[in-house]
Specification:
The chain is of the alpha/beta class and about 425 residues long. The chain has two domains: about 50-285, Aspartate Aminotransferase, domain 2 (3-Layer(aba) Sandwich), CATH 3.40.640; about 285-415, Aspartate Aminotransferase, domain 1 (Alpha-Beta Complex), CATH 3.90.1150. The protein contains 16 helices and 15 strands. The strands form four sheets. Strands 4-10-9-8-7-5-6 form a seven-stranded mixed sheet, with helices on both faces. A four-stranded antiparallel sheet has the order 11-12-15-14. Strands 1-13 form a two-stranded parallel sheet. Helix 3 packs antiparallel against helix 11 and helix 7 (about 160-170) runs parallel beside helix 8 (about 190-200). The chain is globular, with a radius of gyration of 22 Å. The protein starts with 10 loop residues before the first helix and ends in a 15-residue tail after the last helix. Bound molecules: D-serine. D-serine (DSN) binds near residues 38, 182 and 209.
Length: about 425
């Protein structure tokens, strides 16, 4: 062995500091109740593919048209991912190379609104109403390159008001209408968005990042028949690795591919592509349909309990995987509530609610979701416990002993439901 060769050390021996932090995070993910709706637990198979030697390979280009040699095994991997994506979602074309959801969204806009096109206007859901930064928020690069206007939700129902959106679209005349959200607890009626887009001559883009797993599992209507292009991440309800994906109609396939590479990205992350392929295979199994249905049933049980506990649930409930609620009725801002919940082993994020009088860094609400706990096998009765724990944690935000008691109860339950991807030996309780 020459001195330049690295000895084949496991992480524990090669870098004990990082190994220790990873081990601690593994224990944290095992014992805490992960309620962030955009997170999940990927399976052992997905994690293996994501941690494989495929990470060592460069593959700029697309299958059979690469700028590097040695693609004999990478091409079939990417082709498998593409064909599984097309089959699962029923799309004409799939691009599995976006590094994640944000670059995927920028790629869609670049593809559908080429430089020099006279109309560069996009109409999307505003961030305060549950949109995403890449839907043209002023701090997002998307707003540097395109002109955005934003629709909101109805001030009373906090749901989409399609006549208001249609009126805004008639007035604004966007070239692209975006339907997609990160904090909207109801069905997104892609058919209604498509009608509005058709009426004003816009292309419909759907961002289904949050709900891709529900769509795959038949628990939410699919945007694919209605949208010119659909963007998604692969790690939320879809339960794959951290990554992104674009689906589109054949007419836009070439533009989408060019926008991703060479437009915005270099070499695809082949280890992620393989892990996406594995996740797509898993999502095509009958068990995944049951999972998607249970995610929604669990979210409904959680929403009901939170409302019973006196929290103000936005829209009064949920049709999907998430619940957005104001914590103010229990005397806490969303940030105070989320911090207290975290100390109690209940991991969520503070979030603005529609028409929030509070500032974004200390809003009125908290957003929770059920994808991760459902992946661990928890059902509706457990969600009622979780809802009660959340309310207790918020009420007890200034009582460290109460937060420690709740944490003990949460850890007890989680200890009985190992997450996917966590092979024994299980971590010791932190
Ligand atoms: N950051 C994600 C979320 O938490 O909703 C969206 O990309």
């Amino acid at each position: 062995m020459t001195t330049s060769m690295l000895p084949p050390l496991a992480l524990d021996d090669a870098d004990p500091e990082i190994a220790d932090l990873v081990a601690q995070e593994r224990a944290r993910q095992f014992y805490c109740a992960k309620l962030i709706p955009s997170e999940n637990y990927a399976s052992q198979a997905v994690l293996e593919a994501a941690g494989s030697v495929l990470a060592n390979k460069y593959s700029e280009g697309y299958p059979r048209k690469r700028y590097y040699e040695g693609q004999q095994l990478i091409d079939p991997i990417e082709e498998l991912a593409m064909s599984r994506a097309k089959a699962l979602f029923g799309s004409d074309h799939a691009n599995v190379q976006p590094y994640s959801g944000s670059p995927a969204n920028l790629a869609v806009y670049c593809a559908l609104l080429p430089q020099g096109a006279p109309n560069q206007r996009i109409l999307a859901l505003g961030l305060p109403a549950g949109g995403h930064l890449t839907h043209g928020h002023k701090v997002s690069a998307t707003s540097r390159f395109f002109e955005f206007a934003h629709y909101g939700v109805d001030p009373v129902t906090h749901r989409f008001d399609f006549s208001a959106i249609a009126a805004q679209a008639r007035d604004y005349r966007p070239a692209v209408l975006v339907a997609g959200c990160t904090a909207y607890p109801r069905i997104v009626e892609f058919d209604r968005f498509a009608e509005i887009a058709a009426e004003v001559g816009a292309l419909l883009v759907a961002d289904m990042a949050h709900i891709a797993g529900l769509v795959a599992g038949g628990a939410h209507p699919s945007p694919v028949p209605f949208a010119a292009a659909v963007s998604t991440t692969t790690h939320k309800t879809l339960r794959g690795p951290r990554g992104g994906m674009l689906l589109c109609k054949s007419a836009y396939a070439q533009a989408i591919d060019k926008a991703v590479f060479p437009g915005l990205q270099g070499g695809p992350h082949n280890h992620t592509t393989a892990a996406v392929a594995v996740a797509l295979k898993e999502a095509a199994q009958p068990a995944f349909r049951a999972y998607a249905a249970q995610v929604v049933a669990n979210a409904r049980a959680l929403a009901d309990t939170l409302a019973t506990e006196g929290l103000a649930v936005v829209t009064g409930g949920t049709d999907n995987h998430l619940v957005l609620f104001s914590t103010m009725p229990l005397g806490a801002t969303g940030k105070q509530a989320a911090k207290a919940m975290d100390l109690a082993g209940l991991e969520a994020n503070f979030n603005s609610i529609p028409f929030d009088p509070q500032p974004p860094m200390n809003p009125s609400g908290v957003r929770v979701g059920t994808p991760s706990l459902t992946s661990r096998g928890l059902g509706e009765a457990h969600m009622r416990d979780v809802g009660r724990w959340i309310a207790r944690a918020i009420r007890g935000k200034d009582d460290p002993a109460e937060l420690a008691r709740i944490r003990g109860e949460v850890f007890d339950l989680m200890g009985h439901y190992p997450p996917p991807g966590f092979a024994p030996p299980y971590p010791a309780r932190p």
